[in-house]
Design goal:
Helix 2 packs antiparallel against helix 9. The protein is an alpha/beta fold. The chain has a 6-stranded mixed beta sheet with strand order 1-2-3-4-6-9, with helices on both faces. A 3-stranded mixed beta sheet has the order 5-7-8. The longest helix has 22 residues.
Length: about 290
């Protein structure tokens, strides 16, 4: 077993009324394996159950927030059993093909993200550097996103022939036309563009990011806790009335159809792509001249 897999992949700290939950795989750009998924869930439960915690901050240790789902590090653990917490479905380990992938991703990707979106305390994502594919899902389940001016965002999975990540929030977090450009190009868009699209709340210099996030979290924490919970539920329900939940369900089916198609006609369900080749084909809006 890699020494990295023995490390504490998520850290938890309480600063006054704010719980800071930090992804801690900096050597792998905080790629999300199953161990991290369930460690995040445990940390969020801890914060929810602590009445002194009013706001939760989600952060990533190191240069990057998160490079997405773990599809190739030494700590990849997709073949390890964890007790299902989000989806009432059978375990994926003794299944094959699409059955296996659907069971696992219903739990660790779509199910967990929906579970975290419903956390009754405000959540603020503190984003720096890379926020790519599965990293977007982690940021999008938060109520507010504050990022540094060096942050960049991308959902490049269309390169695999797959219509976006499993938690398909794109049209709701940035609008349909921006979502199409984001997905059709696979480009890396910077913080300023993300702010223009409405995907993030604030952009600040890297050295001011933590202070900005903590100041915002502390300001929110002065509001009544139950009032915050009801307000969050109200906005989430409004999004769902605009089709967010049913839209995600439909795209989750398309997502898995794409995986199955890749496996039928190509080398594997990822369309022959891996983390290295995905990074090699990435371009930024600065490189191609757009803004």
């Amino acid at each position: 077993m890699s020494p990295e897999t023995e490390a504490e992949v998520v850290t938890y700290e309480v600063r006054g009324p704010v719980a800071v939950v930090t992804m801690n795989r900096p050597d792998f750009r905080n790629a999300q394996n199953s161990k991290m998924t369930y460690a995040l869930d445990a940390a969020f439960v801890r914060a929810v159950e602590d009445p002194a915690v009013k706001v939760i901050v989600l952060a990533g240790n190191g240069k990057h927030f998160s490079a997405g789902h773990d599809i190739g590090t030494p700590g990849r653990d997709h073949d390890v059993h964890y007790e299902n917490k989000a989806a009432l479905w059978w375990d994926h380990l003794d299944r094959a093909g699409g059955d296996q992938r659907f069971a696992r991703e219903s739990e660790v990707y779509l199910g967990m993200c929906r579970r975290w979106r419903e956390i009754p305390k405000p959540m603020v994502a503190m984003v720096q550097g890379a926020c790519i594919a599965g990293g977007l899902m982690l940021a999008w389940v938060c109520d507010l996103i504050v990022c540094s001016d060096d942050a960049f965002f991308s959902d490049p999975v269309v390169r695999m022939g797959i219509p976006g990540v499993e938690y398909f929030a794109h049209p709701w977090v940035m609008g349909p036309r921006a979502a199409k450009e984001f997905l059709f190009t696979g480009d890396r868009f910077g913080a300023a563009q993300a702010k223009e699209w409405g995907m993030v709340n604030r952009v600040v210099p890297r050295e001011e990011l933590e202070a900005e996030v903590m100041g915002l979290a502390e300001k929110i924490s002065a509001m009544p806790q139950f009032g915050l919970a009801l307000t969050k539920k109200a906005v989430n329900q409004a999004e769902d009335l605009m089709g967010m939940r049913s839209g995600m369900d439909s795209v989750f089916g398309l997502h898995h159809f794409a995986h199955a198609h890749n496996a039928e006609v190509g080398a594997d369900s990822l369309g022959g792509m891996n983390a290295r080749s995905m990074k090699a084909t990435a371009t930024s809006t600065e490189q191609n001249g757009t803004k």
